[in-house]
UniProtKB/TrEMBL annotation, chain A:
GO CC annotation terms, alphabetical: plasma membrane
Protein name from the UniProt record: Duplicated orphan permease
Listed InterPro entries: ABC3_permease_C, MacB_PCD, Macrolide_Exporter_MacB, Permease_put_prefix
Gene Ontology molecular function, alphabetical: transmembrane transporter activity
Record organism: Spirosoma endophyticum
Automatic annotation (TrEMBL), chain B:
Lineage: Bacteria, Pseudomonadati, Bacteroidota, Cytophagia, Cytophagales
Name used for this protein in its record: Transcriptional regulator PadR-like family protein
Domain Transcription regulator PadR N-terminal positions: 19-89
Amino acid sequence: MPHTPPHFADRLLEFFCAPHLLEEVQGDLYERYVRDVRQLGVAKAKRNYIFNVLSFFRPFAIKRQPTEYPQPLFLHPAMLRNYFKIALRNLWRNKSFSAINILGLALGLTCSLLIFLWVRDELRIDHYHANGPHLYRLMERQFSDGKRTASPGTPWPISLEIPKKFPEIVHAAGFSWPGSLTFDANNKISKENGNWAGADWFKMFSVPLLAGSPETALKSPTSLAISRKLAVNYFGSPEAAVGKSIRIENKDDYQVMAVFEDLLENSSDKYDFLLPWDDFERRNNGWANDWSNQGPRAFVQLRPDTDVAAFEAKLKPFLHNYNKGIDLKNLASFDIELFLQPFEEIYLNSEMTNGEISGGRIEYVRLFSVVAVFLLLIACINFMNLSTARSAKRAKEVGIRKVVGAERSRLIGQFIGEAMMLTLIAVVVALVLIAILLPGFNQLTDKKIALPFTEPSFGLTLLGIVAVTGILAGSYPALFLSSLQPVKILKGSLKFQPGATFFRQSLVVVQFVISMLLILGTVVVYRQVNYIQTKNLGFDRGNLIYIPLEGELPPKFTTLKQELTQLPGIAAISRMSEQPGGIYNGTSDANWTGKDPTVKINFVNVSAGYDLAKSLKVKLLQGRDFSPNFTTDSVGYIINEQAAKRIGYKNPIDQPLTFWGKKGKIIGLVQDFHFSSMHDPIQPLIIRFGEKDDYGYLLVRTQPGQTKQALASLETICKQLNPKFPFNYTFADQEFQKLYRSEQVVGTLSTYFAILAIFIACLGLFGLASFTAEQRTKEIGVRKVLGASVTSVVGLLAGNFLKLVVIAIVIASPIAWYVMNLWLQGFAYKIPIAWWMFALAGLLAVGIALLTVSFQSIKAALMNPVKSLRSE
Amino acid sequence: MKRTYLGEFEEIVLLTVAVLHESAYGVAITDELDRQTGRSVSISAVHAALHRLEEKGMLKSAMGEATAERGGRRKRLFTVTALGSRALHDIRAMRDQLWSSISPNALPAISI
């Protein structure tokens, strides 16, 4: 026909017109159209046609006729029974495929569910306070030395001053960094961990009080709040504890004014006692009151109707009036602004770069969520691939079902239902696996996660996962199989289009891309963790013991030292105000000749005793250690290379340096060593003289192999000199490991995940390979008869799969490179990403894939062609 | 007298089906209506009436042959059922009876 009616109108008619009327209606309209073309011309005819189509938009034409044949209900018990029977028979007949499917899915689900539980736990941390949404942490953003830095450390008085100035603030409370103090009550002595906190603490945070009132808990300078655990430990019960007195550090007595419930598992702060805010000031007299110091944290509770952005703008210049170090005329060179961080976000977003909050654990939460989705995806792809590959076997069933009247939607329902049934079995297997794995997982991640069966949200999530996985895994086979034409299937002329194979192959590529990403990630994380742990820190962390100097030890330090030096097995002794590895105290209060007065340089500082370099085994480049032979050493300073560079003396020894107003000179220059985390670059360091300090840590360098004896004698001496305190020590290398705990956990977890990913992917590959080998039995037989060797047949079969793995490697490498580079940015000291990592990961993937595939291929190639060709 | 109600348009369509006899289908009926009564009705209106009449049992239908100009689609051919025939006869009888009851001068003259 030269002219056809407008296509879209036709489509519209086909769409809305009831199927049983369509033929006659459309026929009539065509007939009329042909007449119109003849009589009125094409344009008019088309217009008429459209008008006619539209005029059929009437109830009688739209209303669908109930089908002429009786339709058994989709959910009819008889049909359901049939579906189940067929599904089970299929499962049973192909035991290996079913096992691969269920096992793969179960493993993927186990991982994803574990990660889901972990993420859920992470997201809930600190989210239990009734005032949570209105709680904020005060943050300082400092501009100095051309750099922007942010920190949660604020001046001690700020939490007392700020509520007076801003009506938006309901409560404010300072909160110190955690401290460890020795408690002495009822003849029990033990170390406890806790903080100093502002008087409003219990009004702001939902920590239930078992005894005492929030008003008086931390009001008087000698009040004390302890946890239920401590109350039971020292006094037997929370009620008995109230009003009792506890001697702390064998020095001061405090009255227990309140007993609070032990902190919940999902609290990021773990304190067993709280001391009043005034007490903090008393202990840090002079230093605490100085508005230019960055000390403890400060939390505020805003009124619910506060416009936070506007309030933050008002808050920003608050310190200008208090901090004398800020010159209002020269804000460009030095300035401190205040800003707020929502309390509930602190736990996951605790890192600051360039003066902004830049993330933290949230990155691991995101990373692992992605990994969870990936693993599930790999498992789903297995399922899809195996089902589609084997669809030829079920095509006959589809044909028969269609002939006896199954509609497409029912077939889709049937196949998705089957997929869901399998998923359900896999979920049950996964739950059993999780129950077995959880204790180990908890230990690894330092959590107390349990399977939350009682919570409806968990059940819903499980259902959701079953539904999503079932639909995802079952959709392609369902859509594909149900689209087959019964005539073709039953005539035996069914040919699978190359499209289906291509689809399958791309899915395999996706699987291996993900596996490669995980392998590469694992390699990089492992190398980096290893690098950090074995990197030369600049000081020797083996055979080094830290012992806190407390109680009687600081006054008796000279005696202690004398006794210790006589002990066998001890190589050197010194002391430091902080543990090397955790030195962060910064100050810019340092002066020297030729200093530019407008520049504020942040110097990390620490105090140390005699023989520091000898004990730490830090290399002295110039000058000497603090020594009892020089009385002038009390104003001597030892600096590191970074500090020497910033100060700028050509030959720093004996040059003047004024630190915290104390005039002195530089006596030693040490090589740079890592005194804080390796996430940060080495900063300029000034070591001042601290032999006579009344706090700090004793550093004991033991002879290799004699640590045990040294420890035993150390304990006797400490007990003797300091009977009121328990003996306490840490090893330098263990403390160091703790700094990189989260990296280690990530490393271990990602190894497991990578192994699992490649395992699940190979399960699928194994299934596919055996399927292909089975399908090509005849072809291989013919080839062998014609003289093909076993190697050429294996090459033929395996080559196809290897091609896919190689493509996956090519795709995954740049992505992995980009992502891992991003991760490494977080470290100041990092490994370069080398080509051999890609080669290693690639070889690993190829090797494992080859192993998987060749088993089936060799089996097929070794088959006797007589057998494979006879059967017809 | 108890009988099925027939609308005016339905009655005409039913009559046209009878006129076309064995070759009555949508377009043919529409054309015949146009030619005989001068009414230009849409195909959909005719289809709707046919559909209703079939529901009332006055028409029955069967699929006929396909033609090229219909794009290979078959026609639905309608025939009047006994009930339909009865209804037409009833209407005609009633009208005749009414006509015969009108006195000759009761209606004003209309022509010539």
